[in-house]
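Try it yourself: sequence plus nicotinamide-adenine-dinucleotide, in.
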Amino acid sequence: MTGSLVYVSHRGGVAVLMVDNPPVNAFTHQVRVSLLDAINQALADPDVTALVLTAAGKTFMAGSDIREFDFAIKQPHLDVLNATLEGAAKPAIAAIHGTALGGGLEIALACHYRVAASDAKVGLPEVHLGIIPGAGGTQRLPRLIGIERALEMIQSGRHVSANEALKLGVIDEIAAGDLLLAAVTAAEKCVAAATIRRTRELTPPGQVPTSFFADRRAAIAKSHRGFPAPLGAIDAVEASLRPFDEGKAIENEISSRLKATNESKSLRYLFFGEREVARIPDVPKDTPLRDIRRVGVVGAGTMGRGIALSLLAGGYAVVLIETRQDALDRGVAAIDQVLARDVEKRRLSSEAKAARLAKLTPALDLNALANADLVVEAAFEDMAVKKELFARLDRTCRPGAILASNTSTLDLNVIAAATRRPGDVIGTHFFSPAHIMRLLEIVRGDATAKDVVATLMNVAKRINKVGVLSGVCFGFIGNRMFEGYVRESQSMLLEGATPAQIDKALTEFGMAMGPCAVIDLAGVDVSFLTREGNRAHLPPDPAYCLMGDNLHHLGRFGQKTGRGFFRYDGGKAAEDGEVIDLARAEAARLGIAQRRIDDAEIVARCITPLISEAAQILDERIALRAVDIDVVWCTGYGFPRYRGGPLKHADTIGIDAVVSGMAGLAAKLGNAYGYWTPAPLLQRLADTGGSFSAYAPGT
Ligand code: NAD
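Structure, out:
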């Protein structure tokens, strides 16, 4: 035994080194020290003929300790362990179970032979943190599986199944039975064969065309503008064509350069942020949870179907309620179709599909929810409907059952007041398509009980969503911010920009989709109706979302009608002269002079309102922390993760710059409606040299 992090046992001449650092056997400094010590002892021990590297618990080493990234990595670096193992005169075998990711796979690549359990997964996901594998992954993987495949694995960062890994050559064997036994047997065979296959001595198999790297760089420069990690991966993998040590030096240089970028820092901030959002200061971690097994979903429309799918995937029994048989049948058929597609795409086995469907009970009578533990209401967005439904649910459901509403805009406190159990009422704001989007805003009403909040945060986790707590306000965190973003995009249409130009500027900034395409997808009618619900609070600005209102009146509802901000012929969005003419006519009517608007102005006008509104949301304590807002926008609204979210982005470009940018826009555009007046918190941070990351609520 070395420390308590690596256990050593012997099977004949084979030393089995088992890393034991729960929960995921991350390569902390202490693990590296202990493991190097164990490796050296085994190599020095004349009775040891070979080494097997394995890990305790549910997984092989799942990667490095990301918290160490902000500091100079303390020796021994993982490279030292890898070089020691690879250079050893005794065979070293990796026995992989669970997931061997990042540094975990890199050490396995430095071993001489890799055996994996049949359900193991491997991958080099560093690109998701804005870096590249820095412990030889970019040099060894191409030597095993070829340049093209290695680059694909490194750039996508995807998890590769044991079967695929075997086909590719990442691993050498899938254990038929006991993994450790297979690894020890492999070690004995290597000893008997007296040959050692060192990855560093191999040449990448196959050849790539001469234009390969240039083509990849051009493609990435287009698709990942402003995000340097995938380009770094190309450079590093290209270096694997050189002698190992030269290539490794290039990998080192790129890896340290990328670690210091704002993009990597932002991605790491989000990585921790997605965990941080589960922490609710006044709801202790040990709050007892309510037991949730049976969940009712009321409404089998767009959202109800996706919500039911998510709950089924999380293992819950689901009762799906509709008012009419045909609507119920359509909902069940849609659920079946999504699952069938998952089976077709091999994302799900047909047994798993059958098991999920067996847990789905369609019903027309609300009484079917009498013994539900949680009900998620996804009926029409109409306060009268919701109040009536919640009053009935309150009468029908057992005491202690949680009643949740998927409302996007209605006041949760009013809905809760329709029941005799406001403490059991909560908002669960899913995003469309609900079975795919990871964000779940959990809306805490004035009366919502703490254990109800804790229980829903836990449900979110179980259905693989990122639950973010929001207070009650119109639009909650995400949609409330979306309002100013959309307002500006539509005002610029009147001022002379086209939908394609607006969307291009914002997708080049990194947004997954531009605002015009998003509204066409979600529905011009949906966005119009949301505005209608809030008319009384909108500014008296005649240009305010005028284009959206007009398109709605013209029946141009977006993708579903083939016309919206764009026209959709054959499904592809194209600029539509009618929309541009309409904007010109409306501008003339309102006396707005059209002009050329450059991309920088488009980005500033759309992103700045996001930041200012977010500051206000933070100040009103609708969101708990800046990072909660950033997680909402990165997981639910396609904000570029490598910018960390609107508030992290504000910190990166400087709060001063945001505030002076607003002053510049006010001077240029006028400020009749206060659009360019910084929210008080934003101004305070600018005045005091503060930042959103360092901001503590109440200060
Ligand atoms: P939808 O019109 O597609 O579906 C609503 C379904 O509820 C219909 O099938 C209807 O028959 C059924 N229904 C109505 N009253 C019912 C009742 N009393 N009992 C049982 N079923 C009833 O609407 P949707 O888009 O799924 O929206 C549902 C809710 O989710 C709304 O509150 C909406 O604001 C919210 N929401 C929608 C989106 C979105 O993108 N569509 C996103 C987030 C939240």
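One thing you can check immediately is this: The chain has three domains: 6-259, 294-470, 478-688.
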